[in-house]
Amino acid sequence: MHFKNFLKLSLFSLLFTFLIFLSCYNQKGDSRYYKNGKQYGITEGLFRNRWWNYYERGNSFSEGGFWQEAVEDYKEAITGRDKDQRRARTYGMHFVDYFPHRELGIAFLNLGKYQSAINELEESLMNTDSAKAKYFLNKTRESLLKETGLDRESPVIHLTSKETGLTNGFSTKVSGFVEDDFFVSSIAVNSIPLRIELSEKRIPFEVEVPLGRGKNPIVVKAADLTGKQSQKEFTIAADREGPIVNITSLDILPSGARFKALITGYVYDDSGISSLRINDSEVLKETRKELDFYKEIELAQESEKITFETKDTAGNRTSGQLNPPVSQERGEVLILSHGINDYPKYASTNTMFVAADNIGIPSLIIKLKNLDDFQKVFYEILYIEGNVNSQKEITYLLVNGESLLKRKGKNLFFNYLTKLKKGLNNINIEASDAEGRKAVKSIKVQRETQKVRDIGSRMSISIFPFEKKGIPSALSDIVYDNLINSFKELRVGDLERFNLVERTRLEEILREQKLSQTALLDPKTAVRIGKIMAADGILMGSILETKDAIEIYARLVNTETASIMVGKDVFDQSKSLPSIKTLTDVLALKFENHLPLLEGMLIKKEGKKVFIDIGTNRGLKEEMKFMVFKEGEKIVHPVTGKIMGSDTEILGEAVIESINEDFSKGSLIKEIKPGKIKVMDKVITK
Question: SUPFAM superfamilies of this UniProt entry (predicted)?
């Protein structure tokens, strides 16, 4: 009995010693795989012939450049678990990012087995999207095409938007697609590259291109994987000024029991005048750039006002009002003067009118229609309409430094569109006449943001420090700083996409909770801290740095449900500072594209359940939140009566529960004004 126990104990000790030996051997490794002072082909723990052991050892072989050995291990790993995925469970609560097909494809690429590499990389992408797989699939396709010499054609650019045109907008949409006999790899519009992670035979594109004043050359360039290029050029003209109108004379004559106005002047516009109406009577017969006109208008009364409006081919318009003189008896001479000081005054003996200088009129006047020295507005585009008047010819007219004058005149009407930035905007109108007199009119416009479009109404996100993997270096801290800046710089138009919780707030809470930053790597702790910060979501992830590459993976976690709303990654073999900046910009853009800022309408309400006209066709995702609102009361200028826009009234907040192609169902989580939410109210995603 004692002998049997002794034998069992001896066998156990022998087995334990053997396992220790295997573990030590595994750590020490094979001397054949020792390179540059480092051992490869090893794992951290005991090698138990499990799929994760083969995968880990295969990665070690790959790091050392032992590609054939890596291939064998990856194949063994695939026999145990054949799907690439993030956070694959190994044992207990241990997880690993598992990409055997991707890494096998990279090994085949380095062995020159291009078709095998393509097969494995495509298999990886069928299982799980990853930037690294796309990066190396592009490289493999390029290597195969260069080896075979099959790619002989350059890519072809097809435009679906207009190739010529005229607009009064501040941007134009350039859209189309690029085709290649094999793979399109890059597209750029006016030297701004589009984000293309994976080369394809056909890639559509749509870009909003900002436009300057005048002619804007637009160049679309495309290239395929072997470097063959093509380009297409066209021009879009931007005209944001209405026609310049000069009224050279206005005479009022008796005509029986009525009166007749004799008006002379000219109109000029670079894009072409499409219409000129005086008191609803059309003057222009055909489109032209310049028009000298004479028009007789019947008036019921001597003091009847005369209006005019002219339009150009870009859609801009200039309008004005002429106030006929009112007669005043002064002995034998009839003096006719305007009701406002916008136009020349006239004197008359009998029925002939002549210009009468210096009858209390300033030498050079700038007047603006419906604009005070200061006003608050809620719109983005300001329409400036005005009149410049002098006794001598006006020699220049500038709006914020841009010249509007095409032809000299004494009584000029103009309009001009300008884009307002958020906050305070300074508008300066300057004019000078032939005698050197100058006039300046300055106004200030405060552009306010509607509540639902303000940064406070956007999804709030806190970016937590990322886990550092691979080779530790200061690069991880640079990535973290750049990522915060990249998210801050995200814009939809001129609206911030996300409301970032300041890093100092996170540091304060960690001190209050007596936690270190490493504690945030625990998902439960991270979610708890995110709730304390009142963030809708927390961005956490990892930075994997090797000697010749960097991979960043980030996931956005819902602080209410602790579920992962979206995970995105980026990869590059360059670790330069410009490349890091590009990587973080692309990563932030991926999150913006996945969680777009959308507007729509509430189409049905059943208690707390609401239905909106936004679905998967516009990129809506489950767990996204949206605001329900309505336009507030219009703000009207008390003097001019001009509408300055309107603010919005937020009625409630809801979360998406289910999505169809063109509509979605959500649940109200907050009603600011109970009972006020109705069908046809507006909605906007947070």
Answer: TPR-like
